[in-house]
Recover the amino acids of this structure.
């Protein structure tokens, strides 16, 4: 897969189409701020990156859509995405269209028909990326990782912050989880990991689960078989204690006889005591009678209390009447011819307020005597009523004591029945334990069953071993070592061609970091410890060219292009030098030679792999060599830019 065209659509419907040659070196040269570096971000975005990294400026705000046309062996793919807004953090919508003679559509023909994930999956499948999900190590919290187009694109892009870096080697390597993704997927892209790794790993995972299950069943059966004798004797003792065995003298040690005895014990069904209905009816009747007697006794007690209260009241009244009669009894001392109520009976003097007449007091005395006689006449009847109440109460209490005695007898009988029920429950519990254990040992203690479980465990182990052999890490490591050996040879050759520092030793990739390592007389040295940005650019170029030489030679599912942004930046420090980009702008002959060699190496590799590999370089350099000028596709100087300035004037009104 190579890049045929990059297209920008303005909001007014205009198009900016950049065509690139397939299988060749394509150079976009120009001054600063012409949009050269945005080409790499546009390709990255159109190939499914969600994060919005495109420039935000008035000129870029005129763009409505970005698109690339990709050339495959027998077809073309249009991958287009709407421009992210100035405040957008990410975009997931996309458009994909496939056709053998696909042309460049108009803005009105663009439509959203997929998302970034599906876009990567569809393009990835078309370039041959298979199901390569990699299961994490046991105990790891990492999710399974599937190689996709996004991982392959990381090997095809180098922006200006990456191409001269000594800390990272691959595109976005500093982003979260990208380094781990590279380490997990590069072995697949190098061909060290089998295409059907995901399916094999899933089968291996299931086979290991089945193996653990078979081994657990076998272990449980073996442990149960070892403890069966003691457990059988223990259950036999429990059955004897709870009366489940008809023959208490049974002491056989033969397992079959013990099992048979326990089966009989588990089938034991005692006569469950049931409550006598007549007893229940009698208990209910006695309870009702007891309640009625208690109510009658309470009523009699209330009547007794009432009579006692009347007795107390009558006694008090009689005392008061008697005292009144005693005072009036003095009338007998009044002489005949008493002058009347107006004179004092003792001295005969006139009274200020007259006393009652003697006749009136005699009348009152007679009334009191009548009332006292009435009270005394009632008292015998009240005493008779109290005696009758006491007699009835005594009789009722006697009846109540008899009824309560009968209820006590019934309660004792019920307690005895509850004890029998408790024994029945204990027997039922023991029978349940015996039945459960007999059902277990009926399978786990059988020799044939144990042999069957052993055979299942052995077959599961063989299946796991077979799958592990297909996913043999040693075989993967051996294949990876072979692939990296090829890449190392190419890297070493390129480093020597570029006269890089420490390039005389063996140069290779270290995928654990990942980074470049080169051998020196003092030992291995990583890229991080090699000085000068010029060397960093050279080693980046050597590594990526060597990888793509391997990918192309071995038909690996990686896009057949490499995009480099500003690889000569360490050589053109001043704005004037960047604007002109000529060799004479470089002060040192050594720098002129190295810059020339950088592009010569790109040109040589592309020519060697033609027509299967493409390089697109955005750079300030504008070298005079014929082969270089023939590779220049766009020279953005003297006002020429990626986005025409007229788009600002033609932008539709908001």
């Amino acid at each position: 897969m190579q890049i045929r065209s990059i297209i920008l659509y303005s909001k007014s419907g205009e198009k900016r189409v950049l065509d690139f040659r397939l299988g060749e070196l394509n150079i976009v040269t120009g001054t600063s701020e012409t949009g050269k570096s945005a080409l790499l971000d546009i390709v990255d975005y159109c190939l499914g990156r969600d994060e919005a990294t495109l420039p935000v400026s008035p000129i870029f705000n005129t763009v409505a859509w970005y698109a690339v046309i990709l050339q495959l062996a027998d077809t073309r793919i249009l991958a287009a995405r709407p421009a992210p807004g100035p405040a957008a953090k990410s975009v997931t919508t996309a458009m994909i269209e496939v056709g053998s003679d696909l042309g460049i559509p108009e803005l009105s023909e663009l439509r959203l028909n997929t998302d970034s994930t599906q876009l990567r999956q569809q393009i990835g499948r078309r370039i041959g990326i298979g199901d390569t999900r990699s299961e994490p190590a046991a105990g790891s919290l990492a999710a399974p990782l599937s190689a996709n187009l996004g991982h392959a694109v990381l090997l095809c892009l180098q922006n200006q912050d990456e191409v001269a870096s000594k800390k990272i080697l691959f595109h976005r390597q500093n982003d979260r989880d990208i380094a781990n993704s590279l380490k997990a997927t590069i072995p697949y892209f190098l061909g060290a990991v089998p295409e059907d790794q995901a399916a094999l790993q899933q089968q291996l995972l299931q086979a290991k689960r089945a193996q653990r299950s078979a081994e657990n069943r076998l272990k449980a059966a073996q442990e149960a078989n070892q403890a069966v004798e003691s457990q059988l004797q223990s259950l036999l003792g429990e059955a004897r204690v709870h009366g489940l065995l008809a023959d208490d003298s049974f002491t056989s040690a033969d397992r079959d006889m013990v099992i048979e005895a326990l089966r009989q014990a588990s089938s034991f069904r005692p006569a469950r005591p049931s409550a006598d209905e007549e007893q229940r009816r009698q208990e209910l009747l006695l309870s009702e009678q007891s309640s009625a007697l208690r109510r009658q006794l309470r009523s009699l007690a209330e009547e007794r209390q009432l009579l006692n209260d009347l007795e107390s009241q009558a006694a008090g009244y009689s005392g008061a009447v008697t005292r009144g009669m005693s005072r009036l009894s003095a009338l007998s001392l009044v002489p005949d011819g008493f002058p009347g109520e107006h004179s004092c009976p003792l001295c005969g003097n006139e009274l200020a307020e007259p006393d009652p007449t003697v006749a009136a007091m005699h009348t009152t005395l007679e009334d009191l005597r009548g009332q006292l006689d009435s009270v005394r006449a009632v008292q015998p009847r009240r005493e008779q009523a109290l005696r009758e109440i006491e007699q009835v109460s005594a009789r009722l209490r006697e009846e109540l004591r008899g009824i309560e005695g009968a209820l006590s007898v019934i309660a004792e009988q019920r307690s005895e029945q509850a004890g029998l029920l408790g024994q029945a429950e204990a027997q039922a519990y023991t029978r349940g334990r015996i039945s459960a254990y007999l059902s277990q040992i009926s399978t786990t203690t059988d020799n044939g069953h144990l042999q069957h479980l052993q055979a299942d465990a052995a077959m599961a182990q063989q299946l796991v071993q077979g799958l592990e052999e297909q996913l043999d890490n040693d075989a993967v490591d051996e294949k990876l070592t072979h692939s990296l050996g090829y890449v190392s040879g190419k890297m070493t050759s390129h480093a020597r061609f570029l006269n890089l520092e420490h390039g005389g030793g063996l140069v290779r990739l270290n995928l654990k970091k990942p980074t470049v390592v080169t051998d020196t007389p003092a030992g291995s040295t990583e890229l991080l410890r090699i000085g000068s940005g010029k060397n960093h650019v050279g080693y980046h170029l050597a590594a990526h060219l060597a990888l793509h030489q391997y990918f192309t030679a071995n038909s690996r599912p990686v896009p057949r292009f490499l995009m480099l942004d500003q690889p000569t930046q360490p050589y053109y420090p001043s704005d004037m030098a960047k604007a002109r980009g000529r060799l004479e702008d470089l002060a040192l002959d050594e720098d002129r030679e190295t810059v020339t060699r950088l592009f010569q190496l790109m040109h040589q590799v592309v020519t060697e792999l033609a027509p299967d590999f493409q390089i697109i370089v955005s750079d300030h350099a504008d070298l005079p060599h014929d082969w270089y000028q023939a590779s220049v596709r766009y020279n953005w100087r003297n006002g020429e830019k990626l986005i025409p300035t007229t788009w600002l004037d033609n932008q539709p009104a908001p």
